Amino acid sequence: MPIFIDRRLNPKDKSLGNRQRFLRRAREELKRSIRDKVRAGGIAELDREHVVPIPRKGTGEPSFGDDKESGRRQHILPGNRTFSSGDLIPKPGGGGGYGSAAGTTESEDDFRFVLSREEVLDLFFEDLELPDLVKLNLKQVLSFKPRRAGFAASGAPTNINVGRTMRNSHGRRIALRRPKQAELDAIARQIAELEAKPASALVRERIAALREALDRLERRRKRIAYVDPVDIRFNRFDPQPLPNANAVMFCLMDVSGSMGEREKDLAKRFFVLLHLFLTRRYERTDIVFIRHTHLAKEVDEHTFFYHTESGGTVVSTALEEMHRIIEQRYPVAEWNIYAAQASDGDNFAGDSERCIELLDRKLMRLCQYFAYVEIIDERESHIFGATENGTSLWRAYNAIDGKWPNFQMRRIAAPADIYPVFRQLFARQPGLRKSA
Amino acid sequence: MVSQACTSELLFSGSDWNFAKLSRVYEEIESLGLEELGLDIYPVQMEVISSEQMLDAYSSLGMPLMYRHWSFGKRFLYDELLYRKGARGLAYEMVINSNPCIVYLMEENTMALQALVTAHAALGHNHFFKNNHLFRQWTDAGGILSYLDFAKSYIARCEERHGVTPVEAILDSAHALMEQGVFRYRRPPKLSSEQQREGLHERLEYEERSFNDLWRTLPPSPGKSKQDATDQILAERKKSLKLPEENLLYFLEKNSLVLEPWQREIIRIVRIIAQYFYPQRQTQVMNEGCATFVHYTLMNTLFDRCRISEGAMLEMLRNHSNVIFQPAYDDPRYSGINPYALGLDMMQDIRRISTAPTAEDRDWFPDIAGRGDWRDTLLDAWANHRDESFVRQYLSPALIRKWRLFMLADNADEPHYEVASIHNERGYAKIRSALAQSYDVGASRPDIQVIDVDLLGDRRLRLQHTVKNGLMLEGGSRDATLRHIRNLWGYEVSMVAVDAETGAMLGERSTKEV
């Protein structure tokens, strides 16, 4: 007799620890994959599972092996049909070795695996050098609150609804005519009365009949349970998302010729981070893309990032466009308005004053938060480090920075510079979303 | 189909399985296996697992317990991907050489498959593990699970104490040398003190008998003495380190200059696991052949006795023929010789030779032809052979013709292959010997040995690669592996390539260059 063990209920994911070790090992390459994803994909797309190629670098397992292109070998193969000894067969591929060698390496490149949402965010955050507390905050999933929603036939014992269960049991007992205790008692009493009388043939017969009836009823009672599994009802709970307000995020970007690939890539990551923050805090998040040269226009995401346009640079047009859209579609009473602006700092002479006026008079009153990043060359970063002078737009915005606490500005040369722009935003967490 | 009146009861019907059916089928198959084939097995422990757990088991070398390492995670990703894409099915079973013998059954299998798997793994593989001389000599079936348990917790403790990265570094290096970390031969047993005394006594006696004072009067040759002295130092050094040594992991574990005790223990763990798997690699054809032969024979017997239905038998046969499918060399599905097919065919061939031999068989196999005791012949082969010797001994001309085997000579310098032998009178012996050679794991892996290390000088570890048939090592992986050896040794490591026939030096590579 063999021993049988049912292992199906054992904990799964035995290899999870190995997976984590593998991911750590291939960290750099995976980070690059995610960076490429951010570059190629949409802003809202980061926040989910991603399929990435299995990294090759740093995950090789070398061992001593024969060089395929040296030496003399003998192969034994089955299925000879036409050859006889001494036949010569040209080697495939000309380069010697096996013809399929090139094919296998290629197909290994096709191997892809799924990174979970948490793993993707981890890799993305590591690139931006976010503080741990913020990472935790951003990874949080929308919280739910269980809400009563009717009854269910299955569930946890703690959720049994006694009232409903007993009502079902009662109905079933009536329908199946389960004998009541009172009936049994009545018959028992009759038997006792008869037994007290002097015994005659008639009485004995009567007692026997009654006993039989009693016995039948008792058996019936046993067969029909008082509470049967089919009676049991459980309270059903539906997870209900906690009510949240809506947010709209305005992405403003200068797309004139001076914004190159690198600048756009940094700007994109800046937008992605703000978007992540908003999706955590608000149930519904809209994104509006406004790009501008000397004219501003609302566009879709693809056009926003990938189409270049030539022209001068007038920043105020974008702010005007944003104001117009807010008035049209996003009433302040219903929407939390966030704005993120990216630019290389160039502006048409004299336009910066107009920008200040627009922000000061109108937009800053409407916005929850306005973040401005100026993307500069890495070589310039140490020159401009903290000095107050700079491009015309920078100097102009400096005035706003002092006046409005919800205005943030920053020069960015590398991905790690992005987070400080939002520092205040994350620090200000008023504990209202401390959900489980 | 047999149309005799069946009176006996079916063992099971329908495709769903449950534990009662499994148990009934196991009992029946076990008693049949013991009486019909004379099998001898370890007690069996059957474990039902899901497909995910099977994937887990795949990635950890098929063992139920294994320490943590990223390479297992990588293997898991590959296996999972192939499985999810549908490019590859999972095995129906997995069996572990332990006592009790653990057999994994997949929960998705139908009852017919479970019966097939029971006969295949719980009887066939189990018998082979218990009786084959390699497993008896080299593996400790009773202790492997507790050893793995120790290994896992030991490495976890090391990770806790020393950090994941240092432990990983040691494991990486040790894994790179797993191929070079097995003993192929047993060392001579240590003599008891009595035997030692006796040996000493004999030697003295011999010296006394052959004493000749004349040798003392020979003058020492002046030119050779210096050479002799260095030679002697070298010889002494080699003797004290037991050089040359082909088990690199063993050498590094015992003699490395930089490793801490816990690092040596980790190397030892890897080495012991490599040694545990070494017999399995040498007996693939025999192991699978034995299991396949057993399940095929037992299932047919059960069917003949009307214990399984025609439907179940058809399902088993369909799976059976999938398993033993052998495409020809020019088929796109060809990926080498299928060990299941070769093993089964050879064993059935032995049965044929034993019961109905031809004149040719009598010529080639005078020992077994026509003797009719195929059971004993097979039991003997299962117990005493490995793939290489099994093929060398039992591959018959009839089978070479059936498979239409041919031999290609592949010389890397030439632009074409040459058909060296085909299935004819002149070719049989050559094909048989070449096929046997290809199953010799020891001969087909690169021969690399530690030849010298100067502990008082620059502490350079010197390795020698004996080049057979001009097969050099692949450059990139060789350099990477040498770096791993350097990590474990702590000082410079160099390797010379020496031709096996001529003794000519073909090149030298040192970690200073890589």
Could you characterize the architecture of this molecule?
- With 436 residues, chain A is an alpha/beta fold.
- Chain A has 15 helices and 13 strands.
- Chain A has helices at residues 16-25, 27-40, 101-109, 117-128, 132-139, 162-175, 181-196, 201-223, 261-281, 301-306, 315-329, 351-366, 381-384, 392-403, 419-427, and strands spanning 3-6, 50-53, 72-77, 88-90, 112-115, 144-152, 234-241, 246-254, 284-292, 296-299, 335-343, 369-375, 407-412.
- In chain A, α7 runs antiparallel to α8.
- The longest helix of chain A is centred in the middle third of the chain and has 23 residues, at 201-223.
- Chain A is flat.
- The model of chain A is unreliable at 94-109 and 428-436 (pLDDT under 50).
- Helices cover 55% and strands 11% of the residues of chain B.
- In chain B, 40% of the residues are buried.
- In chain B, the strands form three sheets. Chain B has a four-stranded mixed beta sheet. Chain B has a three-stranded mixed beta sheet with strand order 1-3-2. In chain B, strands 4-5 form a two-stranded antiparallel sheet.
- Chain B is globular and about 95 Å long.
- Chain B has 514 residues and is of the alpha/beta class.
- Among the domains of chain B are: 19-132 and 283-317, no CATH class; 357-442, no CATH class; 445-510, no CATH class.
- Chains A and B meet through β1, α1, β3 and β4 of A and α1, β1, α2, α3 and α7 of B.
